[in-house]
Amino acid sequence: MEQGIITAIRVVPLEHYLVLSFLLFSIGVAGVVFRRNTIIILMCLELMFNSVNLLLTAFSAYHSDPRAQVFVFFIMLVAAAEVTVGLAILVMMKRNVDSVDVNQLNRLKG
Amino acid sequence: MIVALLLLIPFITALALMFLRPTQQAKNVALISTLASLGVVLFAWSAYTGGTVIHYNMDWVPAWGLRFVMGYDGVGLLMLILTAVVFPFIIAAGYGEKLQHPSLVNALLLFTQTFLFGVFLAQNTLLFYIFYELSLIPVFFFLLYWGGEHRRAITVKFFIYTLLGGLSLLFGIIYCLGQGAGFNGDFATIGALNFPLSTQIWLFWVLFLAFAIKLPIFPFHSWQPDTYAMAPLQGTMVLGAVMLKMGLYGIIKIVLPIVPQGVIHWQETVIVLALIGAIYGGIIAFRQSDLKRLIAFSSLSHVGLLCAGLFAWNSYGVSGSLYQAFAHALLVVCMLYISGAMKERVGSSEMGAMGGLKLRTPRLAALFLLVLVNAVALPLTQSFVGEWLMFAGLWQVNGWLAFAAVSTIVLGAIYMLFAYQRVMLGPDKWALEMTDATTRDHLVLVPLIAVTLFLGVYPGPILDLVDVPVQQLLSSLSLN
Amino acid sequence: MRTDLLAILVPVLPLVGAIILASLRRKLSANVAGGLATALIASSFVASVVLFMGFDASTGGRTVHMLDWINVGGMNIPLALRIDALSLTMMLIVTGIGSLIHLYSIGYMHEDERAPTFFAQLNLFSFAMLMLVMGSNFLITFIGWEGVGLCSYLLIGFWYKTPEYNYAARKAFVMNRIGDVGMVLGMVLLFQRFGTLEYVSIMDMATGGMNDPLMIAATLFLFIGATGKSAQLPLFTWLPDAMAGPTPVSALIHAATMVTAGIFLIVRSSVLFELAPFTKDIILWVGTATALIAASVGLFQNDIKKVLAYSTVSQLGYMFVALGMGAYSAAMFHVTTHAFFKALLFLGAGSVIHALGGEQDIRKMGGLKGRVSLTLTPPSIRMDGPVKITYITFFIGTIAISGLPLMSSFFSKDLIMAYGFQHSPVLFGLLLFGALLTTFYMFRLLFLVFYGTYRGKAHPHESPLTMTIPLMVLAVLSVVGGLLNLPHLFGGHEPMKHFLETAADAIRYEHLGLSATTEWILMGITTVLVFATIAMAYGRFAKRATLEGAEADMPFFKRLIAQRWRLDEFYAALFERPYGWISTHLFTTVERHVMVPVMNGVGAAALAMGGVVRKLQTGNTSFHLLAMLCGMIVFLLITLMSN
User: Fold this and answer.
1) Partner residues linked to C209 by β-bridges
2) Which of C615, C619, C629 is nearest residue A29 as measured by Cβ atoms?
3) pLDDT band at A110 (very low <50, low <70, confident <90, very high)
4) Does A29 contact C at CB distance below 8 Å?
5) Are residues B464 and B383 in the same domain?
6) Which of B53, B160, C33, C316 is most buried, most CB within 10 Å of its CB?
7) Does residue B325 form part of some domain?
């Protein structure tokens, strides 16, 4: 990896990355748990992915270990696939129940 | 090779039937498959020279020390023979039934056979447990979709009840595995367990409950009559002929080795319960109006005797019980087949609707009579050998118990002859022509009856098979 | 060897016949089937005779091993036959009388469409009966024991369209089974004690130990078995009902052979019974009671076969009395003579029934002998009755059973009565009374059927030759049967006793210690009283045109006897109906209202638990996600804290 980027990343202290990704992840969790709109839930999922990605990159840079960044690429790939499936489900949902509210999907109620 | 074949033949055939749905050929395919299994088992029998034959022994869950061990000994082989002999006839009985989706029906039956083979081949308690519960699943669906009146409620009840027993068994097995006393679940290492008597006393019931329900013995039997009466003919045959023998096998292979002192502690209690069931079932059977329900109660009676004989825990009692298990399997198939054949002709299995049928179906009446002779355990039939041995075994335990056991021969005669009379004898009330026993009826009943009579005159082959393992079992526990 | 093969052939031939006839029953005609069956049983008879001729009594007997049967864990019970004096005697009776009755049946059953089935069952019966008497151990005897029970069931219910007949068949089987419980327990006990069931070994081992409780129990159990099969109190009520079967069946099974199985069994195990005097006393009094009760009932029966049936029960009672006194050879002697004359009487009754087209009620018979006149030049008896052979032979049978001097029963029954006198004069009195009752009802039967005027409507005709030949042979045997065991008093030397004692040791010890004078006096008393009874019966019944009225008019005690001591009703009230009631209520009450609810309770408990837990499954996706999150946090904390 280019030394310049690593230096650039290291300009910001690690604690800042931690705080930022913690905030991002928390927002994502809160969004997934509390919002009812499926699109927002999907976006919040992405947010969580990205917070983790950010953290992985930061650690990678600070530890001078490139393996974590390989993980990031994997995660992005999986996230893309997941979004594809997620959006497909969304479309089906819209078609079937004419809504994107997750609370409409309560057939599993015991 | 034998083990793999026994598991794969029915399993692959079942999968094929399920996915290819050869509706017209389904029964033939299933029949060929069961006959092939029978051939394999008979080959295994001819090659068997004694001892425990282990075919597979490999790591299964290394983290827990579990091993995947499959094989058989004399008792297991007897059960395999029983299963293999009975299944072709169960499949053949299906030719008379007009069930929908024959491919699925036969697939489910073959799945059951696979898992039953698995139960009798497993040499590891947990493996045994897994097959034991698996075998319930195809039967569950069979009963649920092809059963008679009230099938949902009855099937679910049956399922919950037997599952409850299974759960108790699982708990017991895990408890034993958790002892860490060198017991890794294999039958071969059960000897390492050495519970104090106080533990054995309660652990006995934990383990025994599953088999008590499966057999069933009094007072755990009440799932049985309804289920037998409601289930489709072949389902009842599977339940009555083979599945309940799993209980017997489990008691010998799991309960006795793990808690030998517990078994002795509860011996008389179990015998008394079993005999109460034998007498109770025998008495109730007398006034049943539905032939299938009568068979259910008669089976309860026979099984009670079987269990009592087993719990004599001496060589006569145990050999007799195992021998009788074989006899009972054939008997149940014959009896149910006849009830099916009557239903085919009369349209109901209510005996009130029958009577005087001997005039219309004399061949069937003759076959029924031959089955009846076995059912009431006349000498020179298979049942007599088993019953005699059990009586001799029970006498060694307690004369009064033997007396109670012997008195069931009267009850058996009362309800069987009454049933025969109500079905076959009496004035002719059928103005219409009825087909007598067909070629199919003969093909099913005659070989079964022939085996019954042959093994009644010459029981040597089967008795020799179980004699040595039973002696070993008893001597290793110094119970004899 | 050759004898062994021959011995095996004796039971196997009828078995083969049964199998062939049963499988070809639709293809064979009645006569062919009957001929085949008769030929096979007759071959058995020939084989038995050859065995008998070649038998050397001094060797005691031989065991013919056929096959290992039950052989497991120290129990070794072979399928083996025992050829000795006792089994040979019984074999000759079974095959000999069996052959005659098979022959008779050809004529009797030729119109029945199911005749081949009948002969198959008759052959099967012969097989079972031969197994019973030839078995070398208790369990082989038990094979035959249950086999004859089954055949009896089948043949009583042969005409299965009549519900009463089926009921009678069932009753016979079930009552036999009640006895069998005793038999099985007895066998189990003996096995437990001796470790074997071979007669020879057990009898060798059973020495000393008088009144050993175990021996008393074992013998009592065997005796219970015998009461079932041999129709003794309290299990005799099946035998009169068993008359529902075709008459040859009654003759063969319910008079000559099967019902004597109990006596055979006790003689076979006589050594054991000698060790249990208590059991012998019980046998003695059960036998006496049965003899008297059955004889009393015989007085009022109006069905020709029922009279004979009660007479059979009564005569079996005499045999048990003999056994109870340890007079085993006397019992066997009476078994033999009884087989002759009772078979004769039944076949004669069958011939009468046949002649009258199925009529069995003696109130509708009478006058069948026609006019009998003696001419002296040339010396001959002229008879114009329709059924003269039947009449003559039936007459001979009647005087034989009544024990008129020099008839077979004169020797056999008087021997038992003499033993009775030796035991106690009271017993002799009771037995004599029973004998007079026998004489009375038998002559009542004879007079009502053949004397007086004909009261029926059918046209009587004599039976065909196949039926009359057996009658004549049996008549001869009934007359000369006494020679088989001619007592010293008449210049004989009791050949049968000496023959049998080679097979059953206990017979060596039986001894009639009465003086010749006492015996002559007893014989004289008996004979005089028998003749007096005949005269009384003649006076009351020989000239009758009608019979007394309904049972309702009789005084109480007479009515009680006429209604068979109301034993059937008593058993019905005490056992049959309660059993049905219990059966119904165990199902409707206990099973339906206790057992099933308990099981349902388990299901309900499972459902209730589910009801609690299901509340958690809100179906709300967010809620589930939150729950998942909480779970993850909990696991995280656990992991952190455990480090």
Assistant:
1) none
2) C629
3) low
4) yes
5) yes
6) C316
7) yes
Instruction: Dig out the tokens for B324 from the structure.
Output: 């009788």
Question: What string of H, E and C letters represents the secondary structure of chain A?
Answer: CCHHHHHHHHHCCHHHHHHHHHHHHHHHHHHHHHCCEHHHHHHHHHHHHHHHHHHHHHHHHHHCCCHHHHHHHHHHHHHHHHHHHHHHHHHHHHHHHCCCEHHHCCCCCC
To test the contact with chain C by mutation, choose from B319, B388, B391, B473 the residue with the greatest count of C C-beta atoms within 10 A, namely B388
In a domain, A108, yes or no: no
- Kindly indicate the confidence band of residue C463, based on its pLDDT and cuts at 50, 70 and 90: confident
> Is C622 in contact with A107 (Cβ distance < 8 A)?
no
Tally of structural domains, chain A: 1
Question: Which pLDDT band holds residue B480 (cuts at 50, 70, 90)?
Answer: very low
Q: For residue B210, which residues of chain C lie inside 8 Å, CB to CB?
A: none
Rounded to whole angstroms, the Cα distance separating B469 from C391 reads: 68
CB contact under 8 A, C619 and A32: no
Q: Are residues B412 and B466 in the same domain?
A: yes
Domain annotation covers residue A17: yes
pLDDT confidence of residue C569? 84
Is the residue at A110 inside a domain? no
Which two structure tokens, joined as six digits, stand for C92?
């000759």
Report how far Cα C424 is from the mean position of its chain's Cα atoms.
29
Q: Which residues in chain C are contacts of A34 at CB distance < 8 A? A: 622
Residue A18 lies in a domain: yes
Residue in this structure with the two tokens 């029926």, named with its chain if needed: C456
What does the CA dihedral B269, B275, B277, B278 come to, rounded to 10 degrees?
Answer: 160
Residue B147 belongs to some domain of the structure: yes
Q: How confident is the model at residue B478 (pLDDT cuts 50, 70, 90)?
A: low
pTM: 0.88
Q: For position B274, what pLDDT does the model report? A: 94
Residues C180 and C152: their CA atoms lie apart, in Å, by 15
Please indicate whether, in this complex, the C-beta atoms of A33 and C619 are within 8 angstroms of each other.
no
Nearest to C354 by CA among C247, C457, C442: C247
Show residues of chain C in contact with A105, CB under 8 Å: 619, 621
B424/C125 Cα distance (integer angstroms): 22
Residue B95 lies in a domain: yes
Domain span holding position B453 = 267-480
Residue B383 and residue B429 in one domain: yes
Residue B190, pLDDT above cutoff 50: yes
A110 with C619: Cβ contact below 8 A = yes
Regarding whether B245 and B334 lie in a shared domain, the answer is no
Characterize the bridge pairing of strands C75-83 and C372-376.
unpaired
Contacts of C620 in chain A (CB under 8 A): 103, 106, 109
The tens digit of pLDDT for each residue in B403-451 reads 999 999 999 999 999 999 988 888 877 666 778 888 888 999 999 999 9
* Burial tier of B332 (Cβ tally within 10 Å: 0-12, 13-18, 19+): buried
Q: How confident is the model at residue C548 (pLDDT cuts 50, 70, 90)?
A: low
Interface of A with C in 52-91 (CB under 8 A): none
- Quote the number of domains for chain B: 2
Q: Is residue B218 part of a domain?
A: no
Q: What is the pLDDT of residue B294?
A: 92
Task: Identify the domain containing residue A58 by its residue range.
Answer: 3-102
CB pair distance less than 8 Å for A33 and C620: no
CA C569, CA C574: separation in Å to the nearest integer? 8
Average pLDDT for C1-23: 89
The whole-number average pLDDT for the span C94-104 is 92
The predicted pLDDT at position C27 comes to 86
Q: What residue of A is the nearest CA neighbor of C622?
A: A33
Say if residues C44 and C9 touch (Cβ distance below 8 Å): yes
The CATH number given to whatever domain includes residue A78 is: 1.10.287.3510
Cβ atoms C122, C94 nearer than 8 A: no
CA-to-CA dists, residue C108 to C322, C349, C350, angstroms: 35, 12, 8
Q: Do at least 3 CB pairs under 8 Å connect C with B?
A: yes
Residue C381 has pLDDT above 70, yes or no: no
